[in-house]
Amino acid sequence: MQSTVSRPSPLSRVAWLRVADDVQAGVAAVHEAWQSWQAARRRAAEFETLRRLSPSVLRDIGADPEWITEAQRWREQHDAARDAFLRGL
Q1: Spatial separation of the C-alpha atoms in residues 71 and 4, rounded to whole Å
Q2: Is 7 helix (H, G, I), strand (E, B) or coil?
Q3: Contact criterion met (CB below 8 Å) for 74 and 55
Q4: Looking at residue 2, what is its pLDDT?
Q5: How crowded is residue 74: how many other Cβ atoms within 10 Å of its Cβ?
Q6: What are the DSSP calls for 59-83, one per residue?
């Protein structure tokens, strides 16, 4: 019978590989959060742009009724704030 001397297999990964995995996971999480933030900013900018269009333009382009209502509400609030400012001068 022959006996061979073998090294014991490590049960866990080397510490620096575990640290590298943690760093990679952290970078991936930051990247995902950044992309999510950018998408939210893009949606907010698109919403703001649509809100500033007149309701008749929104009807012409076939926008949803809630967009048209929101644009009308924004326009009325904007006009009321402008009128209040001008009355205060």
Answers
A1: 81
A2: coil
A3: no
A4: 61
A5: 16
A6: HHTT--HHHHHHHHHHHHHHHHHHH
Q: pLDDT by residue (tens digit) across 28-84?
A: 999 999 999 999 999 999 988 888 888 899 999 998 999 899 899 989 999 999 999
DSSP class of residue 53 equals S
CA 80 to chain centre: 31
CB-based contacts of 54, cutoff 8 Å, min separation 6: 71, 75
Cβ proximity of 55 and 68 under 8 Å: yes
Q: Convert the pLDDT of each residue in 35-45 to its tens digit.
A: 999 999 999 99
Cα gap 70→74, rounded to integer Å? 6
**Which residue matches tokens 């326009």?**
75
Beta strands in 1-89 (DSSP E): none
